[in-house]
Specification:
By secondary structure, this protein is an alpha/beta fold. It is built from six helices and 14 strands. The chain has two domains: 138 residues, 3-Layer(aba) Sandwich (Rossmann fold); 77 residues, Alpha-Beta Plaits. Bound molecules: ribulose-5-phosphate.
Length: 223
Amino acid sequence: MSQQAQKINAAKGALDLVKNGMCIGLGSGTTVKEFITLLGQRVKKEKLGVCVVCTSYDTRMLAIENGIWVSEPDAIAKMDLAIDGADVVTKTALLKGGGAALTREKIIDYAATEFVVIADESKVKESLSGEVVVEVLPFAVPFIVPALKKYCKNPKLRMSSEKLGPVVTDNGGFIIDCEMDISEKDARKIETELNTIPGVVENGIFTKFSKIIIGTDNGYRTL
Ligand code: 5RP
């Protein structure tokens, strides 16, 4: 079975949690894309009354394409559920931001009553090792790069492949990727600490979630 099938199975697991009348936060990425497709099918078939708040232009476009009612943070009373993917998943923390949408993702995911992570088996790791993604104000890059050297050897400004120069996020920020190996007990501390560096907007360590659904070859399991 393929990774793609596992992503679909994880998305199906999350779809089971959706109820009529909910307002749902939508993360970003290829796993969330599968969830959006399935949600669109349910909206059409069951005339499901749900609204979504999107964490990226990419997700917003997909939600609209799939006939889902897109709302905005200031137009909803509360978010019942947020569904989002991840790059690295352990039982206690996640690394996110491969798609550079981490800031809006953290705002929406942490604000939801229930935040459910969906991922395929390849994302599950024993330890929190990989790129910690940091969104920063462009003006602050020359100061933040040296400050991040306390945490990783080689912080790298992410460059764009489809345009000249750095990746610019949906918020107008730049992205610095910082390879780290974080122990379970330090994850929350480093998540908090990185955001105290002046000019850092948000970082991709996520330590607050309700449930992790892993898509398997035959269905899904919770971690
Ligand atoms: C985007 C993210 C994504 O959730 C993460 O990169 C996982 O994406 P995919 O489902 O495509 O593997 O954090 O900023």
